[in-house]
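Operator note (shift B, R.M.): manual run for Elongation factor P requested after the automated queue skipped it. Running by hand, logging everything below so the morning shift can see what happened. Input copied straight from the record, untouched. If output looks odd, do not overwrite the archive copy; leave it for review.
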Amino acid sequence: MATSNDIRKGLCIEYSNDIYKVIEFLHVKPGKGPAFVRTKLKSVTNGKVIDNTFSAGHKIDEVKVITRKYQYLYDDENGFHFMNNEDFSQLYINKEMIENAQFMKAGEEVTIILKEADETPLSAELPQSVYLDVIEADPGVKGNTATNALKNAIVETGARVMVPLFIEPGDKIKVNTEDGSYLERVK
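Run finished. Output pasted below as returned.
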């Protein structure tokens, strides 16, 4: 049994008959009154995000989790299929359990968080950044170079990314998977 002082980003807790993952937290010590922890919790079962405030010292039920690397194989209308590289077992995860799944490509290695008690998947985390080929890009308009002008591009996974004007179809780019932003062109 943990307390609200142990809350950190990525912690999985049991709260109101569901399992939530802490995605943001802030310890607040006001001038008057007791301290508290303001959190943003994401349900690992349905993806719903809620805001909650825990008073200082409040008891929380921590869920023990394990992480494993899995290789992304393919997706269907309901979710994604992954393979454990150690024992080649396959795992299925619902689409709601993965943030920014539009940046996953076949063969990509993903970290999957499993509940330790029965090894049910809770969520999947993509790498911080991925390398993707640009399939289609809007033409760059001459004269827009005075500022950091951006244009739409479609990458090999079908996702739309805003890129600088010099990016052309066939280029390989590095994309931040958290917010979908362009990082750099890769040679």
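Quick read of the result: The domain at 129-186 is CATH 2.40.50.140 (OB fold (Dihydrolipoamide Acetyltransferase, E2P)). The chain has three domains: 4-55, 65-125, 129-186.
Leaving this for review. - R.M.
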